[in-house]
Each structure stands twice: as C-alpha cells, then as structure tokens.
Write a structure and sequence with these properties.
By secondary structure, the protein is an alpha/beta fold. The chain has a single domain (2-146), classed as Tetrahydropterin Synthase, Chain A, CATH 3.30.479.10. Helices cover 26% and strands 31% of the residues. The strands form 2 sheets. It has a 4-stranded antiparallel beta sheet. A 4-stranded mixed beta sheet has the order 3-2-5-6, sandwiched between helices. Helix 1 (59-69) runs antiparallel to helix 3 (104-121). The longest helix has 18 residues, at 104-121. The radius of gyration is 17 Å and the shape is elongated.
Length: 149
C-alpha cells in the first residue's frame, strides 16, 4: 500500500471565524484561526507516473477549502443567533458559510468529504482513497477524521 500526503499550511491564509455556541467556555464567543489542513491519500498501485495522486490535480480541493474557510465566518445551522449572522452578511460585514456543525472535528469531517469529492474530479475515485483529513487550529489543537476501513 502506498500513501502520500498533501498539506495546506497556515500560511495559505485559510483564516476563518466561528463560535461553538453550545460551549460553556470562551469558545462560545466568535473567534478565529488560520487553519492548516493535512490529507493522507492511499492506493494499492501507483499510477503511470508512479504517483499515488497528482498533487497538481488537487487545486480543486484547495479551491473548495478557500470557498469554505478563506476569510469566512462559519456558523452552525442550529446556532440560535444564525439570523444575526445572516444580517451581518447582508450588510457586507462577513462572508457567511452555514455548516452542519462547527469546531475542529466538524471541519476535519467536512475537509475529508471535500478531499474525497476532489478524487472524482481528477478521475481517481476507483484507485485512490482518502485515509484521513486533519485540521489544525494552531500548534496545540487539531482534529483528525479517519475513513471507514
């Protein structure tokens, strides 16, 4: 089995704001990070170039990450103040992305899905699989979503 990794570092600028409205801690307040994303890809056989995955073909994944996380405010669909954030978007204060859930773990699952979908766009879904997606808020906090084995 072969594995390769792709990282979109903190310096890519995937800076977003969010809050965990269910938290009893300071995480209930709007805050943000320049997130880092790490992906692990796996294949039983290499392609004709001797690669697991064409990193250049993952530009679509980078684009989707930018769409969701680049200077965006992510708010959970069930946030009781969602309408406040929608109003802020209408007034041009934020770029709102409504997601099922917020937090490092939820973002890792979302990123995993984006990576998996990117394989369809480069026609590698039958040969390559996404093993994991990791999201790092900073050096101390991260979460990993693992594929079902």
């Amino acid at each position: 089995m072969y594995r390769s990794t792709k990282t979109f570092c903190h310096n890519v600028g995937l800076s977003c704001a969010f809050r965990q409205w269910r938290a009893n801690s300071h995480c209930r307040f709007l805050h943000g990070y320049a997130l880092e994303f790490d992906f692990v890809f796996e294949a039983a056989e290499l392609d004709y170039r001797n690669w697991v995955v064409d990193f250049g073909g993952l530009k679509i994944l980078k684009g989707w990450l930018q769409e969701y996380f680049d200077h965006k405010t992510l708010v959970a669909r069930d946030d009781p103040h969602l309408n406040y954030f929608k109003k802020a978007e209408r007034t041009g204060l934020i770029q709102l992305v409504v997601v099922d859930a917020v937090g490092c773990e939820a973002f890792a699952a979302l990123a995993y899905g984006l990576a998996r979908n990117s394989l369809y766009h480069i026609d590698e879904q039958d040969r390559v699989r996404v093993v994991s997606a990791q999201v790092k808020e900073h050096g101390a906090n991260s979460a990993i979503y693992l594929a079902d084995v």
